[in-house]
């Protein structure tokens, strides 16, 4: 049975400064008692993932059948627009009763008074917290206040074009054993060079490789991960020994390990193994890989079903993230169901969020094989469903069980810290000096959290 073992010594920044985001906490209706006590009510629930919408709609149907006075209406909006809509609707007092939250934003939204205390509104009554995969429920305890019940957990792996890898002379076992040390001489670098291909059929290991005529890049980088590096540089930097926080608790974005990692990215761009920043496709990660424009990339487990679908023209496979001198570290995260503090229907909202966090709902979502539910029995069902459907990725379970993970951090001024670090990463991707750019960004980000 899979047991999720989070990285020890997890550090989460607790900052008292208020965010500049206009997320005005609305008190109107804050003590609402819609539901069984107040007659029929409709709960508005928001999420961002279109793939997950059907499975939560199924949960909503089952929930409403058992609670005839409560209807759940689910609205799905793409990631960027989702957070913008929350900001706008909270400010106008028209936010959703419940919505999906991620670890990175939980402190910010909690500090602004937007998240209800689930203990106070009865959403945790009777919940067996031992049923959850270790670490998922703890992510939503903010200064000892329970603001969310976990829905799932995820982990990052490496997806690659299996045919291209075979032609380059690599087996699945070879790829699972790749190592990264940032020198450009390691086996991971050799692999992505071998996966690159120019118009004359040469890979980047050949002296004849034409970096100006690349038809398939060796690796697709992810440049829009904010301060986390979740789908790229963070995993490689951690393998070198980097962490988000220094030993004294200060931010660590100017550390030598991260400098080395991002300088390696620039070297790969210069060699033609990765696209230049201004040439990076606007298609998105999966469509770019599906089009055969890159041989490999780092991606989250929530994408596994897409890459392994029978409709794919390219045969993709998944492997572990590369190991480094400090070990192997794959980014992990978890989502939760939360209740808006301004909801006029808190009693019904509490019951819905409790149901979302229950084995009944999460065992049902596990059957879809899209996510790893936070309830352990749901994860077991998801693993079995993926294996049955030919979409099993044992590497996810192996890395998680071995504790080869790192948890994404959360800041009270999350949006501002994200902007500072994201801008620095984009500048580096475009060729800016890595060391000085990170030093300036780290200083600016530290000023936000002091």
From TrEMBL:
Keywords assigned by UniProt, alphabetized: Signal, Transport
Predominant cellular place of this UniProt entry's protein: other
Record has Amino-acid biosynthesis as a keyword: no
Family recorded in the similarity comment: Belongs to the bacterial solute-binding protein 1 family.
GO cellular component, one term: cell envelope
Pfam family, one: SBP_bac_1
Protein name per Swiss-Prot or TrEMBL: Sugar ABC transporter substrate-binding protein
Keyword Oxidoreductase part of the UniProt annotation: no
SUPFAM superfamilies per the UniProt record, alphabetical: Periplasmic binding protein-like II (SSF53850)
PANTHER family listed in its UniProt record: ARABINOSE-BINDING PROTEIN-RELATED, SN-GLYCEROL-3-PHOSPHATE-BINDING PERIPLASMIC PROTEIN UGPB
Subcellular location: Cell envelope
Signal peptide: 1-27
Family annotation (InterPro entries): Bact_solute-bd_prot1, SBP
